[in-house]
Every structure is written in C-alpha cells, then in structure tokens.
Design goal:
7-stranded parallel sheet; 752 residues; disordered C terminus
Amino acid sequence: DEPGAAGGAEGPAGESRAVGRATQVGEAPGAAAGDAGDPGIAAGAGLSADSKDTQGPRGDSGVRFMLSSGRRNEVELAGRQIVGLLRDGVPPSEIAVVVRDSSRWHRIVGQVFRAYGIPHRIDTRMEFGATGLGAAFLQAVRGFIRGDFAELFAYLRGPYSPYEAQLIDRLEIEIHEGAHHSGAALRRAVARSLPDQLTPLRNVLGRDESGGAIIRPEGVEDLARGLLERASGAAKDIREMEADARAFGVVRGWAEELSHWQPAFSGEQPPTAAEALSTLSQSLLPMGREEEGGVVHVLTAVRARARRFTVMFMLGLVEGEFPRPREEKGLLSRRRRQEANRVCGRELFVDRGPNEEEALFALLLSRPWQLLYLSARDTEDEGEEVVPSPFYEACRRVLGVDAANLRRGLDEVVHPVAEAPSEREYLRGCAVQGLVPDAALGWSGRLQTAPWRRPPRLTRPEVLGQLAGQDAFAARQLEDYAQCPFRWFIEHLIGREKMEREMDPLARGNVLHGALSTIYGALAKEGRLPLGPAGLERAFELVELHVVQALSAFEHHGTAAQRRLLLTAATRDLKRFCEFDANSGSELRPALFERSVGANGGVDIGGVKVRGRIDRIDVDTQGRNFVIDYKGGTSVPKLPFSQEGNLQVPLYLCALRAESPQTEVAGGAYAALGSNKRAGIYLEGVEVGGWARKPLDEEELLEELELCVARAGDAAAGMRSGRIPSDPAEGDCLFYCDLAGICRSGRRPERF
C-alpha cells in the first residue's frame, strides 16, 4: 500500500486503526445496490439460467473511452468497470481484456485483479528456463555436462538444491585448492564429494556410440521430481508454484518424446544432449488457471482476434505499444504525413496503406458484441509523458467524442467509497475520508446481482404463424430441439451455411452413410447377410470400392489432402464396423435399409407426427424390429435416451408401431462409426450381442418409449411457439458444438 493511503486497513483491526487515525469521523454511505461486493466476486457474478430480466450490463452498449495516468491506474480503472459489470450479472467468461503484449501486463493485471477479487485467466506463455524449476534443471544438467563451475554451483547453491550450504562451501574450497575449475576434473571432484545425492543428476546423462553426451529419458523424471518436491519451499507464491508444476509436466513430456525417439531415416543419429536441452529451454508453458464459475480472459491481441465476447477492454493504446513502431523511411512519421495531408486539404504525401497493426486493430473492433472500452495513458507510472495511440484518437474523431468518458490520474490512489471494487478498497476509501465503515449491512450484504439473461423468443406474427402451422416433424429435428433449442434454430430454421466448402463433419457423415447403405445393399443381393466371418473379405472389397464412389460427390470440397485423409479414415472405420457386425454374436438379421416412415405427412405417435428415414432395421428370430441409427462421429448418446434428449431411435420404433400396429419391437441402438462404439436398449431375452447393453422388460421398454414421445411433444410445442432458449438438455452443451460465438448460454463450457 502507498504511505498515507490507508495501508493495511483490512478487517476489524484495520478498521480500528483507520478510525484512530481519522481527523473527521462520519458514517460511510453504503455502496449502491449492485455497486459493491466481496472479494469473492466470482460467487456473486453467477446467473440464473431461468432469468427473464432483459437488461444488459448497466444498460450500456457501444464504445467507452478511458484515459489514465500510469499503467497501474489504467488496470485499476478497467478493474473497477469489470467489477461493476460482474455485479450487474455479466458472466466473467463474457468479458475479455486485450493487450498487445502480455509480458508488459501479466504481473500488474494479476496483482490488481486478485486484489479486486476478479476471477481471471492471463493467457501468457513463459519459457521453460524462466521458471524456477526449469532454470535449476538446466543449470544442473548443463553445468555437469560441460563441467561449468558457474552453472553447476548456481544449482548447488540455489533454492532447489538438496545440499546444505556448509557442504557446498567445503566442496568449493576443495575445488579451488585443487585447481579443478572446469571440465572432467570438476565433475570428478563434485562426484567424489557428493557421491549419493548426485546420483539422480548422473543418471540423466549417457554416452552415444561416438562417446558424445546424450540425455537418458529414464533418469530425467527422477531428477525433475526431486526438484519439484523442493519447489514448495523455494517458490515464493502460488503463481511460482504453479509455474514449477507446469515446468515439471513439460519435462515429463520432453522425456517421453526422447524415449519414443526412433530413427526415421537411415543413418540418423539421436539428438545430442546440447540439442535436446536447447529444445527444452525454449519450450513455452501456458500460464493461468481456469477457476470455477468462469473467468475474465486476459489475452494478447493476436490471440483475441478470432474470439467473440460481450464486453471487451483494449488496454495500452499508446504510441510504441499498440501500434508497435514500424520502420519509417523519411523525415516525417506516417502520422505527421497524414496530418499534413489533412491540413493542406490535398495529398502532399502518398499514404502507403494500412500496416499489420492497423489491420489487427480493425479486426479487434469487431470482436465485442455489446460494449467496447478503449483505454490509453498520458503518462507512465514514473511520470514520464506518453502519447495516446493514433488508433485511439482516430476512434474518438470518428465517433465525435471530445474527451474520455472515464479518467484516473496519478493522484487517485484510492477509489471513491461508493465505487470501491473490493472490501479492501472500500476500507481504504473509508480511512482516507475519515469515515466509519458501515457495519450494519456488512460488506457482503451489499452484493446484489442483476441477472442479464432471458430465453430468446421469436415474435414476428408471420414467422410464428408458419411455425404454428407445422404439422409433422423430422425425428432428427425433434432430437436436436430436445438437446438444444438454439442449435435447432440456427441449423434447421435459419439453415446456416459454411462460408468455405470444407470437409466438415457433415461431409464425413454423408460419405459414411452413403457408402454403408450401398455396401449392405450389395451384400444383401449376394446373399451374404447376416454378415459372418466368411463374408468379411468380400465386405472389405466392397468398402474400398464404395467409399471411393461416395467420396466422388465431394470432389469440390476441401483440399486434395483432406479428401485423401477422409478416404483413409472412412475405409478404416467401415472395415472396423463390418468386422464388428460379423463377430457381434447377435441373433439379429438385417432386413431393411434406408426405410422411410411418415412419408405422407408424418405418422402420429401420440400427439405429435414424425417422419424420417431409418438407416437400418434388423429383426430377431421372432420377427421383432431392432432399429439402428448410424452416427458419423465418435460419441454415442448416454442412457436413458428420454433424459438426455436422444430421441431418433425411440421415435423410429414408435413410428414403426404406429404405421403397422401388428409390428413388435425388440429395441434399438446408435452406432458411432468413428469410434466403433454403440449404445442402445433392448427387450430382455433378445440376443443382441454387442449392439446394446441395457436390457429392459416389456413394461420398462414401453415406459421409456412413452417418455421419449412426451419429450418430443414438448419439443414440438416449443418449435411451434418460437421458443429458442440457449438451454441445452441437463445444462450440458454438446462438446462438438461450434455455436459458442453466437450462443448466449451462461452454462456452456469453454471451447477455445
């Protein structure tokens, strides 16, 4: 804390000291509801997914300009705004703080955000050698390999050393007296004095056929583990301990790569110790931790350019930082030439066009959905003058803003009481103003979250009329709506299209489905179904033939390399599927492929009409139907189907019974072709082999089907009424969903 600025005014003791120093004592005004909070701000920033409140963060949108004196003031001013947004109900994960270079910001941002109780993650990279454990590891191994006195003794005397200082003192005296200052003589002297404790270090090193030093992977982890065990006593704070833990993980991965090294070409030699250590020292460690309840992301400009956030803060918009300086040829800078052109009213100097910094800044301006803060400084922390970025000034001119909306000068080291972002800052403000903290409410009692969410809903009468008039629904649409209404809205109602024709998962699924249908159709004509081990060779021939034919429809999708990759993967997956089918041990026999249901306006299965096409229907020895639905990916639905919203197979079973009342069903399963996994339900007593593992009696099976029909009815009602909330089934988003950039669900996991 700054001298005289209410340093240490924390808790009851700090409060008493503050009152004792005050020249004037009064009652502190309680911070406004929603403008005060406790240090655990993450707990107060949660949202109710069912909220109907339509208000945005403080009702704000657009662009705000901030001007600060000093880098720390710039971060503190941004921190105060972030705390206010969190209290207004904006989820932390919807807020980003963008800087040009994180190396200048990560320490001060971490200090301020931790003091303000802001849950955050600083996306920065640290070299392995810059961590305490990494530096000690490199000093130990390099020093011993080279016989380098300075490096080896930097390790032996360092905080990660297992040796007592007196022992190292005696060793150093012995080395100086014997003139063993480097090379093999130094290594022998150290090994004599430290015979046992030096064993982990000596085990790291070996010799190749030519006698050169190499790294022995089996000894690396033992040495690193010993360093990590001593790290808790050597590290000063939790961030240093975290860096050491990540460095240990990098060492383990590096050692594993060395252990799996195999000569790729004739005559290739393993990397020398120097080469291996050089690679390790340059390895980058991702820093920062995800915290429960979401985090505010602190990103570099390059990392933020492909992401979207509700609110974005751009810090450090000053000359020399953003934009970074570029080489200028001529006496005048580009900014001076532009100013001369503006004053003269004509082009005295030809503008060479935007550079990469301008393009990056322009791209970042499009990243926030609702609110953008542009922040500049007019001085550094020490008082020297800096000039706001031309990007900052250009935005002000374009928007017609005469002055910054928010300012914070070097003299403002304490926040106003009513705007204090944390309890610590609140107590400091009270001490400076000679006020008694409001003990009646208590700090945490003033934290009130104003939720900011409402389920989206369509309102145009013509759209609602069209939806309400929908009579029959595809089983796939009902399943998608039951799993996530927003995804159904984007993919089925809007019908989004890819901007690039690439080999996406949909193309992969079409290739697999098309080829499999043709393959089994050919096997049926040849009388090779049900498929057994004797028919596998023929099945493999058909796979190789028909995958190529199915892929020919996508000759304009993606690159040639992507198509070759899909050809290889699809051939492998379908051969693996045929092998499973031939050895499944099932009594089921394939009967129909690509069977349509509800083709004429849908079939009523109990209050909702469905239609669709069933990939495959097998029958058991009693003629009961078993429905199989192919999935092109690697995951299979969880059970029970009714709870998770996986409705296609159950609805197809109901549709078959509705179209032919005499039809009996034996169950159904989803088959993931990408992973050769299956999940399904079946009637007790039917031998389905590996197709399904959940036996149900007849009553349980009918009950599960009824629950799925009820779930489909709810989905149909929601689709007809235009309800499209970002409300995935069971609160868990589909892991493969790529709609995070436009979905406003506060419960989705991070995907980037």
